[in-house]
Amino acid sequence: MEKIKFRVSESEDRPAAVKVLKKKLAKVEKLMSDWETSMTHVTDEERAGVLEKVQDALAWVTKNEEEQASTDTWADPIFISADVPSQSKSIEAAVKKLNKKPKPKPKVEEKKDNVEAEKAEDEEKKAEKAEDEEEKTDKESDDKAGEEKKDDEESVDSEAKTKDEVTEEEGDNEL
After folding, report:
1. How far apart are CA 106 and CA 150, in angstroms?
2. Three-state SS string across 85-142, please?
């Protein structure tokens, strides 16, 4: 009597378990296709390995469902509902492992290139600043030289005036 109850419960539970497994496998297939763009650090080989396991599980389910359909209802079942979830265990573990795979850190060389580029920009700015200061210094020295020349000219003019005045005074004294 227990065998009959077992077969009846399995005839109801088995299709439900297969349906749940097929949904899980479809989700994993979709996830693997989504990961092609969202998790590029997971390689094609790793995704292919998971998809291969999915295909193996689907083949197992299909084969066993066909065999079960060809057996009599009073015969022992080919597979039971408890066997179905075990087909997805290795797939779930593989997906979990890939999901935890850390993204690679950016290459240090790229950062060095950026740092070197920034240093080059800083050096260019310093060079431009130095040139500006040099031009400013040259201009100031030119201005000072111009002022000194002007001062020299004024002093020569004033000396010339004083000599003329002295000469005039001497001429006045002679008279």
Report:
1. 65
2. CHHHHHHHHHHHHHHCCCCCCCCHHHHHHHHHHHHHHHHHHHHHHHHHHHHHHHHHHH
| Predicted confidence (pLDDT) per residue in 111-130, tens digit | 555 666 666 676 767 766 66
69-106 per-residue burial string, b: 16 or more CB within 10 A, e: under 16: eeeeeeeebbbebeebeebbeebeebbeebeeeeeeee
Fold classification of 2-104 is Substrate Binding Domain Of Dnak; Chain:A; Domain 2 (1.20.1270)
Sequence ranges of the domains in the chain: 2-104, 105-175
- Tens of pLDDT, residues 70-122: 988 888 888 889 999 999 999 999 999 988 888 877 776 555 556 666 666 76
